Amino acid sequence: MAIRKDGGFVTMQQHVISSQAEHIKASGEFSWLLSAITLSTKIISSYVRRAGLIDIIGEAHSADGHNQTNVQGEIVQKLDLIANDTLKRTLGYRGNVGIVASEEDNDPKVIQELGKGGKYIVMFDPLDGSSNIDTNVSVGTIFTILERIPGEKSVTQGVLQPGYKQLAAGYVVYGSSTVMVYTVGHGVHMFTLDPQFGAYLLVKENVKMPEYANQYSCNEAYLHTFPEGYGKYLGWAKDHKGGQCSMRYIGSLVADFHRILLKGGVFLYPPTKKNPEGKLRLMYEANPLAFIAEQAGGAATDGRGRVLDIQPTSLHQRTPLIIGGKKNVDEVMKFVR
Ligand code: P6P
């Protein structure tokens, strides 16, 4: 239900402006930047909602007619390209975004020099879970905002900052409704896109993740290639809890995480034989969600330490991810450590 303050709805714009008035030092330019992301996700949402009706389903084809692949080596869905271009275009017009980096692009892109006001870095997974598009499963956009380091030695070195440096992070899940969740380091706030108004309306402030829930989220098809501790945890969860434990796995990170943010539990994507460093990307998937999880009272680890403390070495590096309610994560780590 949309929250009313002073008799009116609270849009994302208003909320960001009031948040930054209270908290972050940035002037209105921060909300101006975030408005590029909210605008982009409204455009992306309109495409996702019409996926079956206009020619955007299926794989993008390069000029030679072959399936296009991205730096991840995945077949690029047409909607991926649309989402990626939309975000880059709207961010490009904000004037205070210096560097953008995307899961879809090999390298970070400078769009404004630091000396000319390009003080922010925005990184994103434009359409996470895109392989689910054709079957109408929820997909999402994940983003993070960092400040550029004056005197950065190179663009790449400038973006490779640990997760605890994030100024803001958020995601949009294109599900039964379009929901935006974000943090600027002072709590987690949730908005639903009202298609009539075309505005994100505040539906929940200071969202808190349940500390514990009897539910885990994991693709157990890889069970036999997980490091031993994960198998022990999963076996224990099934046996010890005498069937009280349930498993939910959508196969779309944003959707799985959003459920855990609201209902609790734990999501695990351990190292596997196919992805010995884990499958999920640190910079624009694990870090933003870890920032949100911690702000909501939850936890996120790579099986060794805190995700937000990882010093990145490359833009598209992957990481194992165990994220969810604090007690759920601790319970997994008892078996993994
Ligand atoms: P698997 C989608 O491709 C994705 O990147 C995440 O959204 C999701 O959590 C994960 O991969 C699913 O991976 O190996 O279970 O299909």
What is the count of DSSP helices, taking H or I runs of 4+ residues? Answer: 8
* Average pLDDT rating: 90
- The tally of strands reads 17
Give the CATH topology of the largest domain.
Answer: Fructose-1,6-Bisphosphatase, Chain A, domain 1
The CATH superfamily label of the largest domain reads: Fructose-1,6-Bisphosphatase, subunit A, domain 1
The order of strands across the largest sheet is 4-3-5-6-7-8-9-10
Q: List the ligand species.
A: 6-O-phosphono-alpha-D-fructofuranose
Layout: helices, strands, pairs:
Layout lengths: L3 E2 L2 E2 L2 H11 L6 H21 L28 H15 L4 E6 L6 E2 L9 E9 L10 E9 L7 H5 L8 E7 L3 E6 L4 E7 L4 E6 L10 E3 L10 H13 L5 E2 L5 H11 L2 E4 L10 E2 H14 L3 E3 L16 E2 L1 E4 L1 H11 L1
Parallel strand pairs: 3-5, 11-12, 11-13
Antiparallel strand pairs: 1-2, 3-4, 5-6, 6-7, 7-8, 8-9, 9-10, 13-17, 14-16, 15-17
Task: Summarize this structure as a short list of keywords or feature phrases.
about 325 residues; alpha+beta; Fructose-1,6-Bisphosphatase, Chain A, domain 1; D-Maltodextrin-Binding Protein, domain 2; 2 domains; eight-stranded mixed β-sheet; five-stranded mixed β-sheet; 17 strands; binds 6-O-phosphono-alpha-D-fructofuranose
Structural notes for this entry:
47% of the residues are buried. The chain has eight helices and 17 strands. It is globular and about 55 Å long. 30% of the residues lie in helices and 23% in strands. The model has no long low-confidence stretch (mean pLDDT 90). The chain has helices at residues 12-22, 29-49, 78-92, 155-159, 228-240, 253-263, 282-295, 326-336, and strands at 4-5, 8-9, 97-102, 109-110, 120-128, 139-147, 168-174, 178-183, 188-194, 199-204, 215-217, 246-247, 266-269, 280-281, 299-301, 318-319, 321-324. It folds into two domains: 12-204, Fructose-1,6-Bisphosphatase, subunit A, domain 1 (Fructose-1,6-Bisphosphatase, Chain A, domain 1), CATH 3.30.540.10; 215-336, D-Maltodextrin-Binding Protein, domain 2 (3-Layer(aba) Sandwich). A hairpin with a 6-residue loop joins strand 3 and strand 4. It is an alpha+beta fold. The strands form four sheets. Strands 4-3-5-6-7-8-9-10 form an eight-stranded mixed β-sheet, sandwiched between helices. Bound molecules: 6-O-phosphono-alpha-D-fructofuranose. The site of 6-O-phosphono-alpha-D-fructofuranose has 9 residues, from helix 6.
